[in-house]
Amino acid sequence: MAYQAIGRGTSANDGTGDDLRTGAGKLNANFVEVYTYLGDGSTLSTDAVVTETATQTLTNKTVTGTFTGNITGDVTGNVTGNVTGDLTGDVTGNVTGNVTGNVTGDLTGDVTGNVTGNLTGDVTGNVTGDLTGNVTGDITGDVTGDVTGNLTGNVTGDVTGNVTGDLTGDVTGNVTGDLTGDVTGNVTGNVTGNVDGIVGGTTPAAGTFTDLTASGAVQLAVYADTTARDAAITSPAAGMIVFVTDGDGLGAAQFQGYDGSAWVALN
C-alpha cells in the first residue's frame, strides 16, 4: 500500500480537508502497514531494524538473498550460493560449489567443487574437484581432482588426479595420477602414474612406479658438475639418479646414481 497523506485543506479551518473519520482511517492504515512490515501487524519486533544503505552488524540472521558486495564478518551458517570474491577467513564447513577467488584461510571441510584461485591455507578435508591455482597450504585429506597449479604444501592423503604444476611439498599418500611438473618434495606413497618432471626429492622407498613405459619421457635433474649436484642435493637417498654434464671432471657427461654412501657413474 502506498502512503496515505491526510488532507489538511489549503488553510486553517477552511473545510476542504479530510474529516476526522477519513483522516483517522488513513492514519490507522499507515500504522498497520508499518507494524506489519516491522512486526506481526499489532506488535513491533524487538530486533534492530536493518536499513539498505547503512553499515550494520547482523546477529543471528538468516540471509537468503544474493550478495554483490563484500562480507567482512564471520559466516557460521551454510553458504549455498557461489562465492566469486576472495575468502580470507577460515571455512569450517563443506564447499560444494566452485571457488574462483583466493582462499587464504583454512578449509576444515570437504571441497567437492573446483578451486581456480590460490589456496594458501590448510585443507583438512577431501578435495574432489580441480585445483587450478597454487596450493601453499597443507592438505590432510585426499585429492581426487587435477592440480594444474603448484602444490607447495604437504598432502597426507592420496592424490588420484594429475599434478601438472610443480610439487615441492611432501606427499605421504599414494599418487595414482601423472606428475608432469617438477617434484622437489618427497613422495612416500606409491606412484602408479607417469613422472615427466624433474624428480629432486625422495622417491618412494617401498613404492613402485608401475606406469613408466618406453614411450614416457623422464627428465632427470641436470647439474653442471659435482659441486652443483652436492649443493642442490644435500641429503641424497639411495636410488637417486642425476645427470652431470662434465662427467665428474673427466670431460664426458655421466649418469650418476647414489648407492647409499657415494655417487657412482652409471655409464
Describe the structure.
The chain is low in regular secondary structure and 267 residues long. The protein has 3 domains: 51 residues, no CATH class; 136 residues, no CATH class; 45 residues, no CATH class. 10% of the residues lie in helices and 6% in strands. It contains 2 helices and 4 strands; from the N terminus they run H-E-H-E-E-E. It has a 4-stranded mixed sheet with strand order 1-2-3-4. A hairpin with a 4-residue loop joins strand 3 and strand 4. The mean pLDDT is 82.
Count of individual domains = 3
Q: Which of globular, elongated, flat, extended, rod-shaped describes the shape?
A: rod-shaped
Give the strand line-up of the largest sheet.
1-2-3-4
Give the helix tally: 2
